[in-house]
Amino acid sequence: QLQASGGGSVQAGDSLRLSCVDSRRTFSNNGVGWFRQAPGKEREFVASINWRGGSTYYQDSVQGRFTISRDNAKSTVYLQMNSLKPEDTAVYLCAVSRSPYAGRDLTNYQYWGQGTLVTVSS
Fold first, then answer.
1. Which residues on adjacent β-strands are paired with residue 92?
2. Whole-angstrom distance, CA of residue 109 vs CA of residue 43
3. 94 CB-near residues (< 8 Å, 6+ apart)
4. Do residues 8 and 65 touch, judged by C-beta distance below 8 A?
5. d(Cα 18, Cα 10) in Å, to the nearest integer?
6. Residue 23 region, left (φ>0) first, then alpha (ψ -120 to 50), else beta?
7. What angle do CA 89, 94, 96 make, to 5 degrees?
8. pLDDT by residue (tens digit) across 64-108?
9. Which pLDDT does position 108 carry in this prediction?
10. Of 10, 25, 59, 113, which is least surrounded by CB within 10 A?
């Protein structure tokens, strides 16, 4: 029910915007997070946003480069990624929190979508 899209292959310094759509249109009361998983590495937190969009959190390595936002009328959460680096290469996944708030802990998320691959070359 969650579908992430917008990934692709880009050069370092380029930008991409990822989208996460909830086809069930039920996550307007829940926090949403973006996570990523690189080959051979554990899944890690990237960014999250609470149900109203008033609070956002970022992993230190993406702070200032990535921006998370949401449009509840469209049941969509976005991740604008600027100044991409090769170390940002990963499959990016979105997930819906169990509550109106969203944090860094993966166990607080109940629904996960299929990921979208982002490849950044130097």
1. 36, 116
2. 13
3. 2, 4, 18, 20, 32, 33, 34, 35, 77, 79, 112, 113
4. no
5. 13
6. alpha
7. 155
8. 999 999 999 999 999 999 999 999 999 999 999 999 999 999 999
9. 94
10. 25
Alpha carbon dihedral 92, 59, 13, 9, in 10-degree steps, equals -10
Q: Distance between CA atoms of 122 and 104, rounded to whole angstroms?
A: 29
Of 64, 108, 58, 113, residue with least CA distance to 85: 64
Each residue's pLDDT tens digit, 4-55 = 999 999 999 999 999 999 988 778 899 999 999 999 999 999 999 998 888 9
Strand spans (E) along the chain: 2-5, 8-11, 16-22, 32-37, 44-49, 56-58, 66-71, 76-81, 90-97, 109-112, 116-121
- Which residue has 């929190």 as its token pair? 97
- Determine the length of the chain: 122
